[in-house]
């Protein structure tokens, strides 16, 4: 009976499957993590280590996760896991934002569908429905986040609608009340007519909008400029509905102005021949076009500064608008568009408001919450700017018609421009003056404190510092009130006589205690006297019914999460969100913490970009380019999505498409195959087989050098949160250093050498170290696959996530050896290229069929002294010749000094290792194998047939 030599080859053996089957494997592993309380075990193991806290910015509990959620949470998880692997106690507590308009809006939609009016429902019942809605989606999102592989204290998250959280938010507001920073004032705020509430800048998005434009005459009634005494001041605006709120006209003191006299008009022109109009000379052509003026002449010119003391009349003078309209200098007046004069309505714009304060103008309340003029507004009471669906209503056209009627309109048109819209309803917003609660940026030096805190914070990328700094430096006072029902109420009592808020810590303490016990609903269900106690009479006070802006909620989370939880610390090491949160969570958290604690609640801020489709477009249902994370997970697995996150440069906008994800599936397969090869070839490996470092061959010592250098990279990139760079290094190590080079070379020794072979033992010694380091390095990213591989080697009860990164010896570093092997790898590339060409031409079947002649310069030859080039090049033999290659030799332009002349190997092919050698057939018993294989077979106790 002859020996089946192929069965004597020591092939890899492992239970780690080639096909990952991630959609089925990952849920099983999640269940195992839960059953063994892996998160709790990790906390116990690392309890005495330095703590690292990434404070979770709360997502909104109102729908399934989108790809942006996945990016954000995966990145947080990779950071937390890597910090744990660096030897920290990296606690992660997830959280949710549960109050606010988006949830309230959903409940109102349900009411409208049933023909039900929200105002007819008791507020406690309405708030209960909002709470239940938020809880439903919180539970759904929690499972979706866990499916991504995100590890954290999911059984004990923080939730802004928890009773104690609501109490803490109210307590934080009380600190601003007590230090005098909180005040009530009437200012123009961005207002959603659809949602009937003020909006923060973070709730605004800008989109194209077509506005009606008008040129309007304001008759001059008093001036020292002679040419103006029988002229009109001309303004231009894109918001005709604001004309009733006009209280002044602004000009630029340094701007040149002229008076033109109309000499000729076209048909249907509202201009009158002989009338005189004041405007900026560079805008005459635009005005004439709008007003159908076909002829004019300049009759006077003057500087803006000459207008001081000039008074105009409102266009509707004599019909309820019988006040003077002063001309006032303002530095925001430009000559880019319009007329050089700015219609100023202090109730309808921030610049206008500031001008109104500066000059003591009336700042009237003109528009109600539903976007209609108040009953006291002459001529236009009840007219609506936008309807309940955000569509333009009748206010603009009514005002324009009235301007035509009184002879004030010179021209009208349309302008498509970028305009603020509510990001929820997508409807355009208006500026509306209404009583609101504000936190002063100056009263207690909040702005200066916040700017210093920004200077003291680390920003990744650094550009985030300037962005947040400019926002804080230029922002107005913080409007924290909203006219809604679902939120933490503004827990303030206002004295009806003095209009001053009550500042009494004992009252605030009673509110806090009540909220801890019953939640913020107590504000609406308790009798006010219970809060006020015996020292005050409830009849003397107005109880504020506005609720807090949800940004104040999330901005306060550091207080009731970081400070109050025993498993966390304040301040956080890191806040991480999308770049839009410079005006959102980073911003509100900074202001809240600086206003109450004098510093930021974070030491570092990291921002990531937005997710776009493969063509760089925003994701949109109408474009059909939306990719849901669940679709990827169900088809390919969460580890593929996690790989996409770290392989992208997430500091900028990221792109995703099915083609991109498919490419990452291929990358994943290469990484998995590396792990599988290592596992398979380490089967049965024990410490007894290890070879000491100083006894290792050069090639193995080069691998250890690469491990040591890679360890430096991994630790640095993890500390810098630069996982994109980490991934590139790890991928190249697996694909280029290991699979395409080292493992490719050592495959022969692993499969065909005798088990006791020093070379085989050396290879397994190094592979053991490679596996142990590599699987730990990959664990923060490929959290499922790394743990699966770890358990495949070390047992089902052991998890890689309870480990730390290996301590890799600096003694392994050998830059001279690395430089030497870089030369060898270059030479090998030329040999490999030549043999690939031979294979393509079918002159050889495999590289072991060849015994090429390799011509090289002396430095290459010197590098290969005492090394087996045939083994390195995976050929059966090789002849290394010092000198220039002959004509026709294979060369690579980028590897000068090396040429290869292919040739066939002499001898017979070994049946076991497939090398072609003259010695095959020379062994007395094993006639079809080489001498190396014969010795190996003998050592394995396999005798040849007689």
UniProtKB/TrEMBL annotation:
Under the cellular component aspect of Gene Ontology, which terms does the record hold?
A: cytosol
From the Swiss-Prot or TrEMBL record, state where the protein is found: Cytoplasm
Q: Where is the Zinc finger FPG/IleRS-type domain?
A: 907-935
Catalytic activity reads: tRNA(Ile) + L-isoleucine + ATP = L-isoleucyl-tRNA(Ile) + AMP + diphosphate
Note the SUPFAM superfamilies from the entry. Anticodon-binding domain of a subclass of class I aminoacyl-tRNA synthetases, Nucleotidylyl transferase, ValRS/IleRS/LeuRS editing domain
Q: Which residues does the annotation say bind L-isoleucyl-5'-AMP?
A: 577
Function (record text) = Catalyzes the attachment of isoleucine to tRNA(Ile). As IleRS can inadvertently accommodate and process structurally similar amino acids such as valine, to avoid such errors it has two additional distinct tRNA(Ile)-dependent editing activities. One activity is designated as 'pretransfer' editing and involves the hydrolysis of activated Val-AMP. The other activity is designated 'posttransfer' editing and involves deacylation of mischarged Val-tRNA(Ile).
Q: How does it assemble?
A: Monomer.
Sorted alphabetically, which NCBIfam families does this protein's record hold? ileS
User: What is this protein called in UniProt?
Assistant: Isoleucine--tRNA ligase
Q: Look up and give the organism this protein is from.
A: Thalassospira alkalitolerans
């Amino acid at each position: 009976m002859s020996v089946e030599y192929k069965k004597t080859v020591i092939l890899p053996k492992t239970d780690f499957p080639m096909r990952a089957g991630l959609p089925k494997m990952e849920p099983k592993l999640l269940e195992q993590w839960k059953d063994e309380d892996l998160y709790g075990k990790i906390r116990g193991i690392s309890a005495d280590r330095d703590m690292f806290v990434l404070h979770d910015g709360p997502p909104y509990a109102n729908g399934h996760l989108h790809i942006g959620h996945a990016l954000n949470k995966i990145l947080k998880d990779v950071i937390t896991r890597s910090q744990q692997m660096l030897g920290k106690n990296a606690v992660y507590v997830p959280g949710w934002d549960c109050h606010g308009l988006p949830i309230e809006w959903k409940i109102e939609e349900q009411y409208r569908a049933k023909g039900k009016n929200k105002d007819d429902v008791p507020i406690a019942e309405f708030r209960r429905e909002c709470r239940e809605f938020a809880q439903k989606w919180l539970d759904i999102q929690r499972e979706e986040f866990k499916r991504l592989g995100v590890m954290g204290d999911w059984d004990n998250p923080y939730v802004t609608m928890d009773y104690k959280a609501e109490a803490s938010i109210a307590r934080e507001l009380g600190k601003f009340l007590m230090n005098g920073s909180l005040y009530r004032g009437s200012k123009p705020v961005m207002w959603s007519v659809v949602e009937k509430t003020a909006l923060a800048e973070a709730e605004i998005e800008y989109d194209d909008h077509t506005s009606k434009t008008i040129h309007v005459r304001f008759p001059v009634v008093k001036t020292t400029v002679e040419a103006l005494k029988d002229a009109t001041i001309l303004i231009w605006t894109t918001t005709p509905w604001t004309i009733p709120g006009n209280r002044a006209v602004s000009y630029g003191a340094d701007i040149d102005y002229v008076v033109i006299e109309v000499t000729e008009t076209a048909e249907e022109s509202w201009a009158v021949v002989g009338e005189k109009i004041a405007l900026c000379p560079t805008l005459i052509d635009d005005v004439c076009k709008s007003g159908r003026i076909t002829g004019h002449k300049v009759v006077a010119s003057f500087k803006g500064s000459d207008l001081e003391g000039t008074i105009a009349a409102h266009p509707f003078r004599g019909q309820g608008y019988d006040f003077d309209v002063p001309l006032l200098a303002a530095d925001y007046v430009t000559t880019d568009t319009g007329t050089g004069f700015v219609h100023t309505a202090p109730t309808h714009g921030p610049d206008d408001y500031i001008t109104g304060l500066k000059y003591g103008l009336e700042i009237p309340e003109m528009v109600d919450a539903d976007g209609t003029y108040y009953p006291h507004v002459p001529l236009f009471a009840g007219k609506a700017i936008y309807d309940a669906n955000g569509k333009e209503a009748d206010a603009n056209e009514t005002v324009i018609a009235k301007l035509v009627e009184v002879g004030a309109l010179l021209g009208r048109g349309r302008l498509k421009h970028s305009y603020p819209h509510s990001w929820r309803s997508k409807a355009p917003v208006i500026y509306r003056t209404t009583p609101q609660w504000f936190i002063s940026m100056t009263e207690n030096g909040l702005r200066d404190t916040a700017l210093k805190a920004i200077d003291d914070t680390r920003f990744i990328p650094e550009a985030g510092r300037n962005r947040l700094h400019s926002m804080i430096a230029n922002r107005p006072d913080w409007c924290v009130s909203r006219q809604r029902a679902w939120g933490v109420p503004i827990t303030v009592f206002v004295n009806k006589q003095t209009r001053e808020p009550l500042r009494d810590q004992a009252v605030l303490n009673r509110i806090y205690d009540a909220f801890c016990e019953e939640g913020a609903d107590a504000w609406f269900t308790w009798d006010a006297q219970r809060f006020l106690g015996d020292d005050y009479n409830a009849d003397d006070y107005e109880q504020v019914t506005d609720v807090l802006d949800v940004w104040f909620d999330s901005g306060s989370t550091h207080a009731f999460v970081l400070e109050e939880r025993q498993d966390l610390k304040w301040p956080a090491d890191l806040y991480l969100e999308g770049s839009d949160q410079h005006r959102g969570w980073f911003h509100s958290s900074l202001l809240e913490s600086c206003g109450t604690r004098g510093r930021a609640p974070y030491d570092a801020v990291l921002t990531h970009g937005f997710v776009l489709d493969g063509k760089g477009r925003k994701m949109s249902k109408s474009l059909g380019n939306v990719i849901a994370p669940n679709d990827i997970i169900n088809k390919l697995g969460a580890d593929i999505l996690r790989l996409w996150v770290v392989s992208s440069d997430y500091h900028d906008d990221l792109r995703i498409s099915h083609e991109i994800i498919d490419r990452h599936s291929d990358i994943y397969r290469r990484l998995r195959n590396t792990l599988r090869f290592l596992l398979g070839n380490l089967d049965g490996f024990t410490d007894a087989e290890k070879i000491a470092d100083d006894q290792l061959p050069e090639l193995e010592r080069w691998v250890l050098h690469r491990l040591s250098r890679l360890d430096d990279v991994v630790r640095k990139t993890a500390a810098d949160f630069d996982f994109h760079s980490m991934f590139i290094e790890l991928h190249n190590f697996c694909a280029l250093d290991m699979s395409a080079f080292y493992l490719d070379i050592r495959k022969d020794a692993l499969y065909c050498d005798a088990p006791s072979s020093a070379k085989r033992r050396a290879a397994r010694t190094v592979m053991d170290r490679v596996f142990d380091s590599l699987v730990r390095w990959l664990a923060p990213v490929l959290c499922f696959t790394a743990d699966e591989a770890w358990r495949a080697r070390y047992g089902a009860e052991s998890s890689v996530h309870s480990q730390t990164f290996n301590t890799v010896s600096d003694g392994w570093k050998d830059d001279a050896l690395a430089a030497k092997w870089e030369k060898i790898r270059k030479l090998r590339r030329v040999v490999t290229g030549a043999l690939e060409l031979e294979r393509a031409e079918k002159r050889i079947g495999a590289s072991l069929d060849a015994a090429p002649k390799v011509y090289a310069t002396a430095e290459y030859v010197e590098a290969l002294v005492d090394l087996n080039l045939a083994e390195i090049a995976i050929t059966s033999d090789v002849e290394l010749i010092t000198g220039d290659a002959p004509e026709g030799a294979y060369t690579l332009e980028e590897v000068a000094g090396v040429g290869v002349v292919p040739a066939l190997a002499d001898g017979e092919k070994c049946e076991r290792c497939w090398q072609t050698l003259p010695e095959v057939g020379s062994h007395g018993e094993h006639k079809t194998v080489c001498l190396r294989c014969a010795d190996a077979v003998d050592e394995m106790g396999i005798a040849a047939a007689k």
